[in-house]
Amino acid sequence: MSVKNLVLAPVIALLAAFAAGPAAAAISAPRLLINQDFPDPDVVKTAGGYFAFSTTTGSGRIPVATASAPDGPWRITGDALGAVPAWAKPDGGFWAPDVTQLPDGTFALYFSGARTTDGEMCLGVATASKAAGPYTPVGDQPLVCAPEDHGDIDPQTFVDADGTRYLLYKSDGGATGAPAAIWTQKLQADGRTLAGPRTELLRADLNAEKAVVEAPSVVKTASRFLLFYSADTFQSSGYHTCYASAPTANGPFVKADAQFLSTELLGAKVDAPGGADVVDGHIYFHGWLGGARTARGLYSLPISFPNDVPQLG
């Protein structure tokens, strides 16, 4: 190698690192917070600390974990769902919970469950006086269960700066019909009542998505609304996290040109990163543990939004 090339090599390498993008720069950064099954995480910051909730595991119907700081240490402390909803199968599992605090101080827990009559996945809501629960199911019918959706899962709430409260969720889509889609619908202030018609935000229309978009989560930046979502099938190492941006909470959302979190982008430090939730300068997500398909742990990375664009690290 010539002297000129020796001088230029470090500069070229540095430029290549910047060109690789924010995810590539954070390959060694993912922090494993819960090294046991804790899939589809939802993280909530309260005056009393941080709480995280997951899909049903051996730890409970909806396991809850607590920490005093975003990076932990995190500890699973119990089961947040105090009773099985009247409409749901007790052994059907409760998926992808979301917890938010309502204007009156009450905490609302949204979840997916299998309906007793036909096994269809529907959305329910439960309430509690404390973030950790126990949560008591509301009503004897699901909050959302649209027949044309062939199952509704992955609820996530978002509160705009003006106080408008939205419920986002995924419609599974039919085996031979439309692919999965993500919807939003306004909620009344009580968090238990839908308000007005729903709006489709995006649909699985890219080859890499394999007809699956799910796990929506909205972040408001200085002038944009960013919708993070997972795509592909969750059992696959191709499962990944993307985002779309829009000028309003109702869209129209435009998908980013590249994936944001993936097994490849994270240098295989996390297998199939998905179920992302952004809280307090961190993006939390799950990934398969130990090279198997039996448990998904909770991971996090720092995140910021310069010029309304998400950046890791």
Q: What CATH architecture would you give?
A: 5 Propeller
Examine the coordinates and then state which fold CATH places here, giving the name of the CATH topology.
Tachylectin-2, Chain A
Average pLDDT metric: 91
What is the general shape? globular
Q: How many β strands by DSSP?
A: 21
Report how far the terminal alpha carbons are from each other. Answer: 34 Å
What's the story with the biggest beta sheet? 5 strands, antiparallel
Query: Low-confidence segments, ≥5 residues, pLDDT <50?
Result: 1-26
Determine the strand fraction and express it as a percent band.
35-45%
Radius of gyration: 20 Å
CATH level-four homologous superfamily name: Glycosyl hydrolase domain, family 43
Just give the CATH class.
Answer: Mainly Beta
Number of domains: 1
Counted by DSSP, the helix tally is 2
Based on secondary structure, the structural category is mainly beta
Element string (H = helix, E = strand) = HHEEEEEEEEEEEEEEEEEEEEE
Helix content: under 10%
